[in-house]
Amino acid sequence: MRRLPRSLNLALTLIATVLLGACAVQELQMDAPAPTLFTTERIGMKVGVYIPPETRSLTHIRALPTPCIGPDMTSSPVGETFAKIVVGHLAPLFESVTPIASPAEAARYDAMIEARLDDFGNRFGCPISPSDYFQTNGSMQAVDGSGQTIWRSSTNARRHNRPIIMTLAEIESVLGREASKALAALVEGWTQELVRAPVFAEKRPGPAGARQAELVFWDSIKTSTNPGDYRAYLETYPRGQFAALARVRAGLAAGEAPAPPRPQPPPVAAAPPRPAAPLPVPSPAPAPPPMSAAAETVSLVGEALAPPPPRPPVGPEQIRNERRVALVIGNGAYASLAAVRPAVGDARAVAAALRHLGFQVEAIENANYLAMNRAIGAFGERIGRGGVGFFFYSGHALPLDGENFLVPVDARLQSNDDISYQGINLGFVATQFAKIEARAGVLALDAARANPNPARLRAVGPGLLAINAPPRTLYLAAADPGQTAVETGEGHGLLTEALLHVIDEPGVPLPSLLARIPAAVQQRSGGRQRAWINDAGLPQNFYLRPGASQ
What we know:
Blueprint: H1 6-22, E1 43-50, H2 53-56, E2 62-63, H3 78-90, E3 94-100, E4 111-123, E5 133-144, E6 149-152, E7 157-161, H4 171-196, H5 198-201, H6 206-221, H7 227-236, H8 243-250, E8 324-330, H9 343-356, E9 360-365, H10 369-383, E10 388-394, E11 397-400, E12 403-406, H11 416-422, E13 424-425, H12 426-435, E14 440-446, E15 473-477, H13 494-502, H14 510-514, H15 517-524, E16 532-535
């Protein structure tokens, strides 16, 4: 049989695409795929499952931007199918699962799990733009009987690639099946997070539950280089299955119990502070030259910015007993990605500087998914209403589908979907500031590095995407959106270097201090990198180190 000429084949394909666009899909045939079982031991809790009315009544599948023509899908049982999938995936995990009509019924159960579907979109492809997928956005959280949040999912977006549909015959059933799979993929990601969360793992009956809780604890610290993490494990599980290894990493002799923490000696008064050297103000620089996708090491301009001169620690009387909380993460030793050499050193230096400024700092090095998820989830609660929060991250971070994702050290990214499943959505961090109405907050990322796996992660662009900071918060990124940070090959990342230079200067409002950083980074990099700031109302009267008049 002779093959059709290429031009004729393309013409027929385009005609089929137009016919698909003219086809009005009355209603997709959607169903609830069977769940994947992640455990055979049920969690000993009775839960109510709440699906908000605006989610349950959703029938519209939004058309995502595309140059192609696709059928209308405005009438499909999206919300009802989503509700069935949620209940179906939770039912094998708990002692009992009951759909409820209102959050007011939560007090009848050990916990209430709420699942929301905020948006459901479909993109039709065609020969000029062959990319067909469904995009889901939503969230899941659990609250106890008193209404307190005990767990929240970190994944809020998922993309499900589907085959290109070129026939009219089974369009409704094929699209319906793929749409159902897309919803199930989002819910499945949530349930995988849920079964690993300590609050649920410890509820499994008998020894199996205790073992699972211990495994969750160990998984969250096993890559840590902080001896205190292993001492905490030994205090909780003195005869645990990893006790011998924990003693070695904690620096204890065999059989030695971890000693209680010793009180810190009072700070020694330091010499009167010297005036801080002014940060160099560069002359206007030309637009940075294009950066290649691969990481490159460049020669920097001038000497490294020096940290501030020694000053005494900021005491409670200087900050009027203001609650200051920081979470600092440095991820450098990746299991399957290129190492980020400055990351751990960046995190240690920033953590030390913030402690000196009166912050209660939790510092994590080379953190896996569980450790990052647990620490970020607790961050907002640690800040408390009206407190001050500072989040700093150095390591790999990647953009995907309009979101930025922080990459844990145990991530194995072989496809774009792995980024959203194995990464931590930066929106999860931003939520911690917003939900407790922090008085002031800083979210700083020294992370706009090159794509660590360009052969596999082809949809990942350079640098990071612009985001809107939460109210009263400032977002500080290492480079402008879409720009890759330069690799210095030595010392700190350029953002970290500039931050350490200004952070301890007395008597200058924090927004003014941080506003100096983009120009300093631009000068040090010879115009190849400029830090990016999005200020959402960080109070102008907020000082990290108040001066004599504040």
